[in-house]
Design brief:
Elements lengths: L7 E5 L4 E6 L5 E7 L4 H32 L3 H15 L2
Antiparallel strand pairs: 1-2, 2-3
Length: 90
C-alpha cells in the first residue's frame, strides 16, 4: 500500500486545520482535519515530518554505512540500525 505522495501541506481555516497533498493525478486531497488549541502546530509538524522522512532515512543510511566501517561501538551501530528499521516499516 502506498501513501499519498509528498509534499504535504498544512493549511489553516476558520473551522479547523487541514493537511493536504496532491494525489498521483495532481488533485488536492484532504489527508486529515485537526481541531483544538494545538491543531495548527500539530498539522504543521505532521506535514514537516512526512516531507522530511525520506531525506532523513537516506542520511541515516549513509551514516550507518560509514559507521559500520569506522566504528567498533556496536551499541551505537545497533541503535542506528534499529532507527532505520522503524523508519522503513510499512
Amino acid at each position: 500500500m502506498e501513501h499519498t505522495p509528498t509534499p504535504w501541506s498544512a493549511e489553516n481555516s476558520a473551522l479547523c486545520d487541514v493537511i493536504y497533498a496532491k494525489d498521483t493525478s495532481g488533485h488536492d486531497r484532504r489527508i486529515c482535519e485537526m481541531i483544538g488549541p494545538d491543531a495548527a502546530a500539530n498539522a504543521a509538524h505532521i506535514a514537516k515530518c512526512v516531507n522530511s522522512h525520506l531525506t532523513l532515512v537516506a542520511a541515516l543510511e549513509a551514516c550507518f554505512s560509514e559507521l559500520c566501517h569506522i566504528n567498533d561501538n556496536q551499541e551505537l551501530i545497533d541503535m542506528v540500525d534499529n532507527a532505520l528499521q522503524h523508519a522503513k516499516e510499512e
